[in-house]
Amino acid sequence: MMELSDLVKLANNEWDDLLNGDDPVLLVGNATCGRSAGSGIVFRTLKNRINESGIKCKLHEVGCIGMCYLEPIVAVYTPGNPLLFFSGVHEKEAAELFESYVIKKEKAQGKVIGFLGEGDSDGHKHLGDITVMRPQERLVLNNCGLIDPTSLNHYIANKGYSGLNKSLGLEPQQVIDNIKASGLRGRGGAGFPTWRKWQFARDKDSDIKYLVCNADEGDPGAFMNRSLIEGDPHSLIEGMIIAAYAIGASTGYIYCRAEYPLALERLRLAIKQAEEEGLLGKNILESGFDFRLKVKEGAGAFVCGEETALIASIEGDRGMPRPRPPFPAVAGLWGKPTIINNVETLASVSRIFQNSPEWFSRFGTEKSKGTKTFALVGKVKNSGLIEVPLGTSMREIIFDIGGGVENDKQFKAVQTGGPSGGCLPAELIDLPVDYESLADAGTIMGSGGLVVMDENTCMVDVARYFLDFAHKESCGECAPCRLGTKQMLDILTDITEGRGSMEDLKLLEDLGKGIMKGSLCGLGQTAPNPVLTTLRYFRDEYIEHIRDKKCRAKVCKELIYYDIIAEKCTGCHLCFKVCPVSAISGDPKEIHVIDQELCIKCGMCLEKCPDKFNAIEVYAGSKNHG
Amino acid sequence: MAWVRRPAPTNGEESENGVGQETRTNNIEIMSTEEILKQFPAEHNNMLGILHALQDNNPRNYLNSKDLKAAAAYLNTSLSHVYGVATYYSMFSVRPRGENIIRICNSPVCHVEGSVNIIDELKKELFIGLGETTEDGLFTIELTECLGQCHRAPVMMINENIYGNLSKEKILSILNKYKNNHSG
Ligand SMILES: Cc1cc2nc3c(=O)[nH]c(=O)nc-3n(C[C@H](O)[C@H](O)[C@H](O)COP(=O)(O)O)c2cc1C
Ligand code: FES
Questions:
Q1: Is the minimum distance from the CB of A340 to ligand 1 under 6 angstroms?
Q2: Which CATH code is given to the segment(s) A459-547?
Q3: Which of A49, A47, A18, A17 is closest to A30 using CA atoms?
Q4: Is the separation of the CB atoms in A584 and A605 below 8 Å?
Q5: So what's the architecture of B1-6+19-96 in CATH?
Q6: What is the complex's ipTM, to 2 decimals?
């Protein structure tokens, strides 16, 4: 068997040859986000073009660099030049790019995002200096979008498995102490200190212990773990082996949701590669330590992200939570001590050992060390995957990195922590994003979904939708969660449909607090958060819905009305024809009128009214109340 | 790969393509239930894997009672237990479904970006409601929670292929690809 140093030598040669070699190199961002933008065809086009042209050129697929809004992204290295990143490279652009930049060696055309590496930058910006990237620190996402996730060598050439090598030279307790020194806290939601969890399991006497990676990422608005696995699967595997060594686990499972087929494929391949090189399995790197790793595929149940439900699901049962204690660290999988960590937590472990605990803890705040990845989505210009030091302000994230709100609308709120979190209002835009500050504001860090909302988002509707999610995903085991969320949902539906009363607000708060206290697992214990935070920060919007029967964002159908602007109506009669309930009257060439009593607010007239007339408007409230 | 999944159709010049095209074969090979079971050690914790494999192997995308019984016998557990698991997880079905399963994301981000319109359009286009299957057995529409593609909301998944930034017009061309793929 080879030593790691031999592997490193081989890998370094390959990597050097790739990015300093004599042949051009094409890297196609081919994670799910790239693929859904068409990178699959781009990849095949380039492959064909390379074959046809007969020139020597390397082609690799890479993960997501985070700028999903610019996909498909292709990075090109040509000898003597830096690695240039191009955005919006669809099939046609790919062929052109290959023709002009690679074959004819012409000046780079098309949309250049930036460059990495050395050589004549030709006036382009370094990738780290572009506005989206400048506030970011890529510790965990370091390799994503740069290395081929199907190549073990690419990973090894970028410090891969050096962290494992280092840890295997330490005593397990020293490994835990290093993690303690790094200040790493769980990235899966609660932010529990990782070392403490590991210490529980390490101190527990047991013939068998298990390590589980939670890759069930189910929070709406979150896809950090997917991207990380799709772009750099070995960083997770390395972290798992280190964690297993620290706690003394001999078997590990990665529980990944079935909605992520590419991530599953990447994991299976990476495990096989690691096994072949003696990085997994028996006697890892001649250390005497054995660790087997298996992948378990979920089947579409959000609650399986909860630790005890996840355990039940791995065991092959319905994924229902059970009361804690005993905690999984004491009695988990098959009653044995089990540690469950999030994907990002474990990938951070790799980086900490590839570098040092001090290197990691230099980033972040006093109590929240390191960086955190976020999925920035919703009504934000630059949506995608980002990584910033903990403590970075919401303003920097949304306005500097995110480029602000789409279509220059007014920023209204940002939802953190998915269905367990809350909505922060525009006033809190300068809040530093760390575990404590978010908790003080009534929400949580969660796994890292940030959903940006603008003036066209109705906060009552959003709260209802998050609650609807929790209600549907409730496993039904405990009454507060099963029935309580239903009750809250009914009240919220009433409010959004104009049947609310002022007493409902208090009732919602009381119910919410009750559900949080009485529920069995984290799902119910946090489900009311989106409602409670919107009640706290957007109470006037609730009141408007109830008292004025008005939805200012014009989302709640019952609380808006359609009207024809007399001055603009030319009597083209199109709306008349399309209205399914004959609520519109008027003869051709006459001004048309909507009968508010009959109107069902389907919006078809608005859609039909020609843009040049633009005679139909939607208003908040009802016509009689104003 | 232990089992075969349905690939995206490759016809149509629009570059919107799903996952897994390079890696999956184009033909659905139907294996016998026994052949599938044999690929897994007879351990209870392989339950979900086995159910996925059996369901993927079924042209109608569901777990029939014969398969459920076989799984129960293989894992030395009761049929009711297997049935309980199969009906707990939203991705399993014990009723026949279409050849292609359309899962539309109904989570908050997609909702805010207008998933309702997409759902309506699909229903209108296919003449079926949620959870129903078209008469020709080609499509079933289901709702799903977040697919982790929110930056391209609204999003849907057909079999294993992701389609984002959906609009009414896009829906038509995507559905047509699957229809043509079937007849061609
Ligand atoms: C309903 C529910 C869903 C959860 N989903 C996830 C998830 O998808 N991924 C995750 O890492 N943690 C999830 N968690 C949190 C985990 O239970 C657990 O705290 C976490 O995996 C611990 O890892 P960490 O210490 O590395 O953060 C969820 C919790 C609950 C209550
Ligand atoms: S909310 Fe629809 S993909 Fe995330």
A1: yes
A2: 1.20.1440.230
A3: A47
A4: yes
A5: Orthogonal Bundle (1.10)
A6: 0.91
